[in-house]
Specification:
mainly alpha
Length: 367
């Protein structure tokens, strides 16, 4: 898989894969970069998991997980995980066809998502690279075009998350204000985003990068980058003029409804979250469910292995806004995350079997 990915990336940039570097230190920098990309997410995951466990009563968490969970609702969550992946695969297929890539069977589209999420448990964003390579090889098309559609796919997610944040702030403003005022993390967020110097430095760095790109735009390297960027933009721009935009929006809503229901259904699995469902003013638990869901969605921006660590802590913080203790919140997040991960691994194993079968079937068909 690594060799295929390297070959395709060389094709995407239209640059020779084996171009001589002439410097050993360039190779050393490459190795260091790869090591950092692996170690940073592992370190983030490890530190946050240790911090989380330090804040909770392990015995209480274990007791809840053994006897305080109605796992029937957790299994419903697992079904919703698979359903959301299938819908996401079908939605991506609309983008791929709009970019000029031949239609894939819906199961192949789904498998591309199954495998991606399974690989993301190993290393952040590895699944995104893999699914682009998988489609590029299967459909015999330019990798950079597929990457563009993947980029558009994630931009769609970012827009939805932004809308959900606004919705959560509207329906749960008092609880979020309390979090920002009373928790160190909330105070840090307020101080960070309200610091004018940080925005000035961000603007200065952005301007410097833009200037460097302009000054080097005629070099072979930048020409390769620009060529790839144009192909990526082509894949992304199909969002604005593709056929089936109505179905794309319906499927987008379906994906995020499934994501929200994964959190909300698990509220019925624990006694302390079931109380939130019946509590006056909580709209049958929809408000705290939305807040927990939004906090968890925001945490995916932190590089980690499948969200382990950042997602759990974000969920714990969100539940604490409604009086749920750290140990209970940890039990909730660990059960939800663990069963989601198990489901994704099982779907990933199914993907391996399907790809082998599909490869043999297509080989026989072309023989």
């Amino acid at each position: 898989m690594a060799g295929a990915l390297r070959d395709k990336m060389a094709e995407a940039t239209d640059m020779p894969q084996n171009a001589p570097t002439g410097h050993k230190h360039h190779r050393a920098r490459e190795i260091c970069g790869k090591v950092v990309k692996v170690l940073v997410p592992l370190a983030v995951t490890g530190v946050l998991v240790v911090w989380m466990l330090h804040k909770v009563n392990i015995g209480e968490v274990t007791r809840i997980m053994r006897g305080g969970v109605d796992y029937r609702y957790v299994l419903v969550m697992c079904v919703l995980v698979v359903l959301s992946h299938i819908i996401r695969g079908i939605r991506w297929g609309i983008q791929l066809r709009a970019a000029g890539i031949a239609r894939m069977p819906w199961l192949a589209e789904s498998v591309s998502i199954f495998g991606a999420y399974a690989l993301n448990l190993v290393f952040p964003y590895l699944g995104e690279a893999w699914r682009c390579v998988y489609v590029s090889q299967r459909q015999k098309c330019k990798l950079s075009t597929v990457v563009g559609t993947d980029f558009g796919d994630r931009i769609s997610d970012a827009v939805v998350i932004g809308l959900l944040i606004l919705l959560a702030m509207w329906v749960a403003g008092p609880a979020i204000h309390e979090f920002m005022s009373n928790y160190e993390v909330g105070k840090w967020l307020e101080d960070t985003f309200g610091n004018g110097k940080i925005w000035m430095w961000t603007g200065a760095v952005t301007g410097a990068v833009a200037l460097a790109c302009m000054l080097t735009r005629r070099t072979a390297f930048m020409q390769g980058v620009l060529t790839s960027a144009k192909r990526i933009w082509t894949g992304f721009a199909v969002l604005f003029h593709m056929r089936g935009i109505g179905m794309y929006l319906v499927l987008t809503a379906g994906i995020w409804v499934c994501y929200f229901l994964q959190t909300y259904v698990c509220f019925f699995a624990f006694g302390f979250t079931r109380e939130l469902i019946s509590e006056p003013g909580m709209m049958w638990g929809l408000i705290p469910g939305l807040v927990v869901f939004v906090f968890g969605s925001i945490s995916i921006a932190v590089p980690s292995n499948g969200g382990l660590g950042p997602w759990n802590i974000a969920v714990m913080f969100a539940l604490s806004l409604y009086g749920v203790g750290n140990s209970e919140g940890a039990a909730f997040s660990l059960v939800c995350w663990s069963f989601q991960a198990i489901t994704q691994v099982a779907a990933g194993l199914f993907s391996i079997g399907y790809m082998q079968w599909d490869r043999k079937r297509r080989r026989v068909a072309t023989a």
